[in-house]
Structures
1.
Amino acid sequence: MALREIITPENPVLRKKAFKVTNFNDPKLQTLIDDMVETMLDAPGVGLAAPQVAVSQRVITVRLSDDEESQKEYGDQAGVLYVVINPEIIRTSDEMVEGYEACLSIPGYYGNVSRHSAVTVRGHDRHGKQIRIKAQGWLARVFQHEIDHLDGVLFIDRAKEIWRVAEREDEDDEQVFAREDEEKPASEAAE
Ligand SMILES: [Zn+2]
């Protein structure tokens, strides 16, 4: 496994529609997945899409933190690693919720984005087996954010407002969020 470089919008791969994976036996795919997981955990982030490491393939990894606070809030979802290949959102709630998002590819910014409060995602696991995931709340938001990446869409395209994370050393990200956030601080939520 190896860490990969996370690209920013200067690299055009981030804005391309990614290709469907067709060969699940390709050892390069397995290496890509291992590297994406390592890169996501190292960042740290709660999700990563292959285009963010400059690979134009429809692969995402998602993992909500498993620290105590996260376990309290997300229960069984905390700490579960999802690897989804060729993911598709096949069902969405009518209900939309606004929440804060950040992105590992757009460091230093966050924004408020309206997302479906629940989605059902269909795709394949890393061995090609078909899987289906029902996600709600924060997990649903992360899946929508990551699947957007596969179509070259970034949260800044959808955000109602975008802010810069405060850079003052005595004011960390979390404090910025504590003032106006009712959901998860983006400092822990970069995707
Ligand atoms: Zn992102």
2.
Amino acid sequence: MLAKFLSKAISSKCLLVRGYASKPYTTQELVDVSNRYLLGVYKKPNIILHKGMGALVEDLDGNSYLDLTAGIAVTSLGHGNTDIAVALMEQAQKVISTSNLFHNENAGPLAEKLVNSTAYPGNPNEPWAYQAFFTNSGAEANEAALKFARKTGFQSGQDNKYGITAFQNAFHGRTLGALSVTPKKGLPRGV
Ligand SMILES: Cc1ncc(COP(=O)(O)O)c(C=O)c1O
């Protein structure tokens, strides 16, 4: 029942960007308002992506595209996925966020699944991972990886074994730690 309602809502106009606005916006108006009020981090094409199904997305003007970016590799289960929508809605109706100051009923079991999934097929009882670390963004994940690597270097007992080697043209995110291993070309002074 819930799944049916959600899939109807997703394919109808119920979940439009317009839900946030007091009047319907045209594509150009939305582009203009975004450029005016959102801090610009990337140059974006003048389309407004509005809904999708699987690997296809559609803009406000009804043009369809094959989504080859997948949210920069974070929407691997596709757009308009009813199972995801139902899970999000069910959780939002219970408790929306507990921060990382409290346990909740999902994070532990998910970490357990992830850790156990790193076991080699011939050796199911010996995953190579020990624990999972959940973050909100790629930059934080890379930031954590840098810290883990540096800590491991310090704990190795060998002096100064905490430098990080980075490739030219690499990108790791916009936190200061991630930027510290990002070649500076093109970054504004002071960043
Ligand atoms: C290769 C790479 N690393 C890290 C990041 C940072 O991810 P996020 O934007 O989620 O912080 C990005 C995002 O553009 C990326 O493309």
